[in-house]
Amino acid sequence: MGTKDTSQLRLPLAISRKSAAYVLKNYRYLQKDPGFFLMKTVARFEVAREWVTREPPFRRREPVGTTSAIVQSQHDAAEVVSTLRNEGYYVGLQLAPEVLAELVAHSEETTCYGDRDPALALRIGEREEFERRLGRPLKLASYFKQQEEWPIFRQLREDPLLQAVSRAYLGCEPVYLRSELAWSFPYRATAADKRAAAQVLHCDINDYKTLKFFFYLTDVGPENGPHAYIKKNPRQRTALHQLLGQRCASLSEAQLLQTYGTKQLVTVCGAAGLGFAGDPYYFHRGTTPLKGARLLLQLELGCRRYRTWYFDV
Q1: Is the pLDDT of residue 187 over 60?
Q2: Which of 122, 275, 293, 313 could staple 93 via S-S, CB 3.0–4.6 A?
Q3: Are 246 and 204 spatial neighbours (Cβ–Cβ below 8 Å)?
């Protein structure tokens, strides 16, 4: 068989292998947790996620008079929830100065792990010397789940304002799912690097509805790896994009912005302590820093906890 014939077979074989892996992974999800399999299959569709999390109007959980000593907001909790429902995101939370200082102090004193590799343990203040010995720059450094042991993080996780906003937006008693605290560093990111680091526009479907809270623990300007998102309004997600679900990450940013509007893309910049809330079902991405280093804390709450998750099979 000639070279031409071999190359013609290559693409169909690659597609077949990818399809087989996709079917096998979904079969494992179905075996391990049928509820998770059902959710990941149907929660990509807006009508399904809204129907499952619907509440009768007379039972709608509106946050009234909620205050917090840990997190301040530019608007009251009801306005935060209204903005989330209309736009998918709300920008305007702020960590109290003493909370920010304590979180940063913990991050400096706690071991983190370069490129999420348990073998690459370091303190963030040692990064330059560590990279010199390693012989290459790090892309990021994660604390894995260590932040969940810090008393200040536990207070933030149970903060009454965050809980009230989550309760009203999700329509149920919020369930804490996961968190991440990680540094992002400047480097020459390839397209594959950006996909792996969630630095392309994508959506997350971790439950029928979830809510994430993000906090910058360092100053973040346009060159420091800001978060960006596409506002929910004015156009509903297309049928094709709902069908693709999380595989929309394979679409180019130009394609998505042509569909939903360039003016709908919002880049979030601000001083250390800035916080914002977002429904990760709506398109969003991180950005590779061009200079400096960005420290970002994320918390995610949902409607229920599943026995498995995407990385468990």
Answers
A1: yes
A2: 275
A3: yes
